[in-house]
Amino acid sequence: MAVNASFVADDLPPLPSYVLTPREPLFPPVPDNIVALILPILAYWGVSMIFHCIDVYDYFPQYRLHTPAELLKRNHVSRADVVRDVILQQVIQTIAGFSVTYFDGPECIGREEYDVAVWARRIRMTQRIVPGFLGLLGVDSLGLSKNLSNFPALSAALAGGFYPDLWQTSVLENGREIVTPAFAGWELTLAQFIYSYFIPALQFLIAILIVDTWQYFWHRAMHLNRWLYVSKRAAVKFHSRHHRLYVPYAFGALYNHPVEGFLLDTAGAGVAFLITGLTPRQSMWFFTMSTIKTVDDHCGYHFPWDPLQLITSNNSAYHDIHHQSWGIKTNFSQPFFIFWDRLMGTRWEGDVTLRYERARAAAEKQVERERQENNGEDINCVLDSEPGPLDAGSEDMSSQEKPPLKIIPRATRSASRRVHGVNGSIRQK
């Protein structure tokens, strides 16, 4: 428990004393910092299962970005492998988060009134510069203050924060009473707004900008750097693993190589958390909403009523383009806004309707061909071949940057095109 008492002898109102006490957990007895690590995982699987049920029972086919045939024939990884890798990333994410917060002391409360008074003081001191500033503009602030005497608050602010009628009685620790200046009501109201709403909103905005910046440049590097995409010598598939999903679905949002998952998602969120100084309860909101937004971006549906898809242009339809062979070098921004794609010239431009229609038709033909070859029975399997970073480097990508070296051997690439009917049909002029 900590105690503070602060009084000053100048004409500023004194700061109140405060007593710090540990904050009770939101869900006793689990500490808030642990809850902040658990909630994103629960949100990930909860929201994913909602989209999964919509997908399985085909509730809103009119809003699908891809058909069930595409989901089956275009992806290069089974759902079981996706679940395994996502769980592995979430384990790593939880361990990393726990390591960061383990040495933090308990969150304390009790100084809220003191912090509001600090902001009220800053507002009072800001008023001191008003006469001088207006004087530079040729305005007689003191004369204007006298003319506005019927508006006491405005008059006092124009006079440089001079409130001759605002006084209060304060009691010192020894019991002695003294008369000190007091804050105006509007100063306390504005200070309360800044402390309770503006500062937290600014923290969230900065955290979002940090995550967007971190993810954009790392994500882009993973496409431009061959080693970060797939290391042939080490036989390690980094970012290319995520692009086995040509047709994204909700619980595949965090399907990554563990190294990529830690570097791109876990580290980025951790840096934003540390720089902005989010409290444990603020981090609950930030981490959980970031997770839900990522799941929504991979859900495979473009709902007109989905608020997460309406708030920003970075939605499921936008990110789905990046998962296509012809759009893999564009739309790197994740998970909130697309300003980096706009600034860096990596935003996909042009209509994609025909490309999607070709992919749907090719997948349907593939399913029908397999059904005929197997006496009318469907074969529910995925491709084993690994898409290279430039399985995207096709004729349709002529306007995009092409790397100087092919990643996938010619034989493998040719076999992939023969089996993967969608890619072949998309590349046809």
From TrEMBL:
One of its GO terms (molecular function) is iron ion binding. InterPro entries: Fatty_acid_hydroxylase (IPR006694), Sterol_Desaturase_Related (IPR050307). Keywords: Membrane, Transmembrane, Transmembrane helix. It holds the Pfam family FA_hydroxylase. GO terms for biological process: lipid biosynthetic process; sphingolipid metabolic process. It is found in: Membrane. GO terms for cellular component: endoplasmic reticulum membrane. The chain crosses the membrane at residues 34-54, 194-217. Residues 367-429 are annotated as: Disordered. Residues 204-346 form the Fatty acid hydroxylase domain. This is Fatty acid hydroxylase domain-containing protein. It comes from Talaromyces atroroseus.
